[in-house]
Amino acid sequence: LEELVAQRTKELAVSEQKFRGLFDNASDGVAVYDRNGIIVNVNSRFCELHGFPVESLIGTSIKVLDAGKEDPEKEERIKRILNGESLIYETRHYRKDGETVLFEISAKALQIDGDIYIQAFHRDISDKKRLQEQLFQSQKMESIGMLAGGLAHDFNNVISAIIGHVELLGDNERLDSDARKHLTIVESSSRRASQMISKLLKFARKGKIDMQPVSLNSVVRDTTELISKTLSHRNISVDLKLDDMLPQLMGDSNQMEQVVMNLMVNAADAMPAGGVVTLATAAKTFGNEAAQVHPLLAPGAYVILSVTDSGSGIPDDVRDKIFDPFFTTKGQGKGTGLGLAMVYSIVKDHKGAVTVDSMVGKGTTFQVYIRAVPAQHIASDGAAENQQTERGCVLVVEDESDTLRFVSETIESFGYTVIAEDNAIRALKFFKEQADGITLVITDIFMPVIDGRDLIKSLKVIKPSVKVIAMSAYQIEDFVRQDIPVDDFIRKPFGGIELMSKVNRLIMPYRSLLS
Predict the structure, then answer these.
(1) Residue 504: how many CA atoms within 13 Å on its side-chain side?
(2) Arithmetic mean of pLDDT over the chain
(3) Domain 212-371 is classified in which CATH homologous superfamily?
(4) Cα-based distances in Å from 103 to 50, 106, 157, 317
(5) Which fold is adopted by the domain 393-514?
(6) Model confidence pLDDT, tens digit, residues 11-43
(7) What span, in angstroms and rounded, lies between the C-alpha atoms of 369 and 351?
(8) What are 267-305's pLDDT values in tens digits?
(9) Strand partners, 103
(10) How far apart are CA 183 and CA 187, in angstroms?
């Protein structure tokens, strides 16, 4: 009997040792607490995740670690576990340093020496959740961009027609001074609306970026020099921490200036009582861990811009919205809410990523990741041809009636013959029949049935020498010049002076020769 007891005791000791080994070496943090929430045992991983030594946790209520909002289901959840259910749920705990950690908890009841306890496995999912949120944000911004682009394009057609007809009406000599004053107000308001739509279109743009090697340090210095005096009046200083060995990035220099400017302005707005904006640059090469920084970040060499403010930080309920177009925490009339949306859109177009790290009461840091210049960068320059043209009439193709009327009447007022068409199919048929007499075609790019790109290609096949001006509310310069042979472009909304300067540039040389 003694031998049997000794054997069983030895087996129990080995079993307990194995259990203790599994318990202590588990990849998840494990805590065991009683029905009142008092911790009776934790493993080393639990201590590591929370930053507390084991002796300070034993005998403490698990509730003191709870950093989440008041959860009415918490007590009900404990009852269900004690009644035998195994539950998986998410909650936030405080670390010793005051930071919070998001845990996925798998909990079930245990019976030890006749008493019921809860055993909870804690898995840190903070990074996983952050990546999910960033991916969701990217998908949301893509959808918003598509919607914004379509709405802005349609709205710009309306604004273009308003500005155009105001200009035509302003040429009427019978208008009295009061009428002209009201016209001026209408035109001024329309142009302000146009500027806002212009920003929205930049956010939603689909055109190709002029990618060139850019010195981020130079962009930061130039932008800082431009804005630092304004910031100093708001009791805000700028601290630069630039990497002298920083490689160039591949990007559009003008858009990089917008990114730096918008982030600096955003940082300044976060410090109404003054403070410090810190801009830092660095370089880093990522392997497969790139996706841990941001799910859309591919492996490779990057230039990194960090913009840090000493403001009050961003509350959790606001952080998910900061990149949304028109979202702003400023008062009415004090901001458009497009600054950070522009930053996000530009960085995404550069195949980069932007992240935000913020603590309420301690400030915020935005980090922008843009591809560094490859070891061998080959620049390709396109060549544009200037062809001679014949004297003739102007064919205008635009499906939006008010814009068609404005463009046609403006050109006619300068003595040109104009054929106006609101249907691309009819315009193409007319051109086939009258190509010899048409010198210039002005066409919208985005139209139903046959869009402007296909129309222009067909026109150039029929008469390669015909001059073409493409017009659109989008920023079409890059992809238009590459995809279709246009001679110039004009972006909506535009006025009569801008329109005629382009028309005259293409036609007037031949009038001079014939006069």
Answers:
(1) 12
(2) 79
(3) Histidine kinase-like ATPase, C-terminal domain (3.30.565.10)
(4) 11, 10, 51, 19
(5) Rossmann fold (3.40.50)
(6) 666 556 655 656 777 889 999 999 888 999 999
(7) 9
(8) 998 898 899 999 999 999 888 777 778 776 788 889 999
(9) 91, 124
(10) 6
